[in-house]
Write a structure and sequence with these properties.
heterodimer; A: little secondary structure; B: mainly alpha; 8 helices; globular; ER lumen protein-retaining receptor (chain B); membrane (chain B)
Chain lengths: ~10, ~220
């Protein structure tokens, strides 16, 4: 679950 | 995902693989700063704490594993491999990199997006990555002779961060709520640190002369 505060960049 | 970010990740992957390949094939780490490699291992270790808690995509998880394994392998090679360690020039690689760790951590405690352990560690890894190249750049200035693979390694690292800046610009215009000042400023500072290296790298490439950094 990619909620708001998860950083999706490496 | 956009083309700038994918290109940035691939360039970053290439930089690490170039380095591993160099060390593994010629069994030498001449010109490579162990301190910079230790800082990068710390950057990945503190940034990918969510490796097993937040699943974003197979690509994301796979790349995190590759970066973690490769950065720690490079540190292992330079420190413990019986042949490679002999070519490590610890008298030249003298940058006090521990002096970089504490200020980055303190800054992360003060300037962050959310005061949680995971977020502070993530912010710390951003600040640390921005300055992690310093021991390597100092070593290059000192040893003056830059072998091709080391030059390519630093060039690819700078290129990856430059591509990420394009990625942030793209995301800013295409994703309404995508605003991450800390990431942007830290990434910009990091890219600027490479600017002078880029200049001399292109000069040497254009004039087809060996890459030399001024003393």
């Amino acid at each position: 679950s990619v909620d708001g505060d998860v950083h999706d960049e490496l | 995902m956009n083309i700038f970010r994918l290109a940035g990740d691939m360039t970053h992957l290439a930089s690490v693989l170039v380095l591993l390949l160099k060390i593994h094939t010629i069994k030498s780490c001449a010109g490579i700063s162990l301190k910079t490699q230790e800082l990068y291992a710390l950057v990945f270790a503190t940034r990918y704490l969510d490796l097993f808690t937040d699943y974003i995509s197979l690509y994301n998880t796979l790349m995190k594993l590759i970066f973690l394994v490769s950065s720690f392998s490079i540190v292992w090679y330079i420190r413990h491999h019986k042949i490679v360690r002999r070519s490590y020039d610890k008298d030249q690689d003298t940058f006090r990199h521990y002096f970089l760790v504490l200020p980055c951590f303190l800054l992360a405690l003060v300037i962050n997006e959310k005061f949680t352990v995971k977020e502070i560690m993530w912010t710390f890894s951003l600040y640390l990555e921005a300055v992690a190249i310093l021991p390597q750049l100092v070593l290059l200035q000192r040893t003056r002779n830059i072998d091709n693979l080391t030059g390519q390694y630093v060039f690819l690292l700078g290129a990856y961060r430059s591509l990420y800046i394009l990625n942030w610009i793209y995301r800013y215009f295409t994703e309404p709520h995508y605003v991450h000042w800390i990431t942007w400023i830290s990434g910009l500072v990091q890219t600027l640190l490479y600017a002078d290296f880029f200049y001399y790298y292109f000069q040497s490439w254009k004039n087809n002369v060996k890459l030399e950094l001024p003393a």
